[in-house]
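Sanity check

After download, print the first record. It should look like this:
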Amino acid sequence: MRPSGQIWPTPDSNTAASGGEKLMRDGILTIDLASIQRNWHAMCRQLKPGTECGAVIKASAYGLGSERVAPSLYAAGCRSFFVATVDEGVSARAYLPRNATLYVLAGVGRGREADCLSRGLVPVLFTVEQLQRWRELAGSAPCAIKVDTGMTRLGLDLGVFERLCDERQLLLDCNPILFMSHLACADEPEHPLNSHQLQRFQWALEKMRTLCPEIRLSLANSSGICLGEDWQFDLVRPGAALYGVNPQPGASSIVEPVVELRLPIIQVRDVPRAGVSVGYSATYTLERPARLAVALGGYADGIHRIVGSDGFGILAGRRVPVVGRISMDSTIFDITEVPVEQLPPAGGGHIQVLGPSLDVDEVSARVGALGYETLTSLGDRYHRRYVE
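Expected C-alpha cells:
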C-alpha cells in the first residue's frame, strides 16, 4: 500500500480529451441489440403455431433507447409494437415503418385522436367515454379494446362490457381489431388468479366474437407466455424478457443478458488506519486499513437501485463491495483485495456493476427491486454503446 493517506493520481478531468480519453471518463452502458433480437426469437419459440410475437417498447424500451431497439426488433421480424402513450407512439412512428402496428396501451386522451389518426396509431380503449369519442372522431380507424379480468387497473369492467355487447353498436362503430386484457400474477405460475383471469377472458371473448368474429386476442405478457398455450391466443406482448429479465423467476432463464454497465474510477486513495468514516452521515467506518476507489455514478444515475448500500461491483475479476452511502454522482468501493499489479494504471479504469456475471435479475433481487425498475432507472449521463 502507498504512503499514509496518499491519493493516487487520476487523469485530469479538465484536460481537453480525445474521444477515447473522454470515454474512459464516462460511465459506459453497453446495450447488445443482437441479444435483444435473440431474446425475441427465444420468446417466439415458446409459442404455439399461429401466435404472433409482438414487443413492448414503452418507456423508451425500458430505458434502453427505443429509437435503436425498435428498428432492431423490426429487423428481426417483429411487426406489432406496444407503447404507453400517444407521445411515445408519435416518436416511434418516426423510426418504424408504416407496416409496423403501434398500439397505445394508455388509450387516447381528449384531443389526441388526430395524432393517432395521422400516425396510424391504434389506441387501446378501456372506458365508455373513450369509445364514444373514438366513434365520433375516428371514422373507421381501428382501435383495440381492453377489459379488466383481475388486474383492477386499466380495462372495462366486465359488467360494463357485457352491457356494451348487448347494445352492440358502440363497439361495432369503433372498429376494434384487437381484444385484450392483462395478467396480474403471471410471474407466479401457481397463483390461482392466473386461471381465474383466463376464465374471465374466455367468457368475455366469447361475447366479443359474437360481434367481431375475426377480432384478434391478446392476454399474455412475458411471463404469461410461459404459462402455456392456453394463455397465448393470437398475439403476445413480451417486454422485460426482451431486455434480459427472466420471465420465469426461480427457473433457468430462457433469455440472455442485454446490458453491461461500467463506472469509471475517478479517484483511488489509501486509508492507512481503521476507524475512518466513509461517506455521508458517517454511516460506515473502516475496520482496517483500506484502499478505496471513487467511481463516477450515483443515485442520480440509478445506482441506488442497481448496486444498493450492501452491493458490490467487479474490478479485475474480483467482487469489490460498496462502502458508505451512495452519493448523487459517485459511489465508493473498497478495492483493498485487488492486487496492485491488477489495478488499472494511474487509478483509471472501470468497475462493472451490471453485466454477464452481474445480471439484471441478480442485482435487482439483492436490493429488493424488480428487473423493470433496474432497467428504467438507468440515467441519461452514461455513454451508451450499442452492439449490433
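If your output differs, re-run the checksum step. Summary of this record's structure: The chain is about 30% helix and 20% strand.
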